[in-house]
Amino acid sequence: MFVVDAAGTVIHASDEFAAQLGADAAALRGRPLSDFVGDGDWPDVRGTLDAVRRASGWESRRCRCRLSAGDDGPAVGDAPAEIDIELEFAPYRGGDGGGYGDGDGDRFDSDSDANRVVGAVCREPSEPTTARLHTERDRFDHLFDLIDDAVIEFEIVGIEPVVRAVNPGFETVFGYDADEVRGESLNDFIVPPDADDEAVDFDQRTADGKANHAVVTRQTAWGRREFLYRGIPYSRGDGKQYGFSIYSDITSQRRAREHLQVLQRVLRHNLRNEMNVVLGMAEEIREATADSHVDHAAARIAAHTETLLRVSEKARTAAAVLDDQRPDEVVDATETVRAVVEPRRTRFPAASFDLDLPPSLPVSVGPKLAQALANVVENALEHTPEDVTVRIEAKRCENDATLRVSDDGDGIPEIEWAAVFGDEDITQLSHGSGLGLWVVKWVVESAGGRVDYDRRDGWSTVQLTLPLADGSR
User: Fold this and answer.
1) Three-class DSSP category at 375
2) Terminus of the chain with fewer CB atoms < 10 Å: N or C?
């Protein structure tokens, strides 16, 4: 061990510590500790010392550094050794408790503040070697510079996040030069006035060592944008609190989602209301006319109106499923299949259902699996002859589960399956079945699964591959 005074001068060094440096213990006394610390390590060591002195009570802190006796030091034997060591600093009081000492009865002159004299114990490094630390820093710098997202490294000073470094992505995304923001409060540049309280809360969490994650609005040189924000705190062991802020611009995605939601809701609402009026007028015409041609035309109007209303209802159901942001949960695929099929036996009495299901098949999809499976079964029933046979098979397949829904009807029209399951461009969807298939695809893929379609030997098969949710995965 060794002891340093308020000026950072070594006032005691044990023989064991001196031997590690290849030096004489007596000759180390009176020399600044900085003489023994490797290049570039002194700021961390000094910061750790200062943090121990500022602590209100007894508190120890550790730091990592390289030590040697120095080029002009009192070397013993070969050239001065350089050691990679971990130092634990703590307030030091002498052996009699009334002043400062070396534990052997020697007393050191000092101020009355017990935190002015600090002792250090040398320990074997518990972290990677210095060479590895430099390599990791190089890797981090490479990532820091090349990542497209805006990344800011900052220090919490008081309650302000003071910028220490920014990557090129920050300059591109926010439009401010690195030299312009370095050393300044980050909030002064990117936080809108109406988000000050939110930013202060984030900064306080960082100061407390807590991570942040939120969708926020921030000010850029070109106006306000929306970001996915992640705040990551870290410490250098110098008693100060640092952090990284990562901002991913999601403005376009959120605006596109908002536009689609508004258009969907307005379109569905207006379509439903107007089609109900058309359907009512068609029925009035049929009741009022004796002309068979007029009656036939009114019947066709009513039929097409009902088709549009069903499409509107499918769109409403699809929107409800896709807006459900709950995380996936475990459901039993066997129970889900039975729950989907049973009410349809009554609605489609002429259809036959052939089920091949295991007693239980837990999958990680959540309640939305029922909506996806219902769309597949509805397509098999509604667009085929009344006496269609629907086969549903569920089984384990290594780390996944498969659900196969087959029917002996005419199959899914190519215009629809090519867009959903193939590489064709999205085109007009006929009679709404394509919309249901898109819902199936989105639900299954969001859970990490896959949807496939096959037409063979007069049978059409839609296969859902889903992640198993038991210990076999």
Assistant:
1) helix
2) C
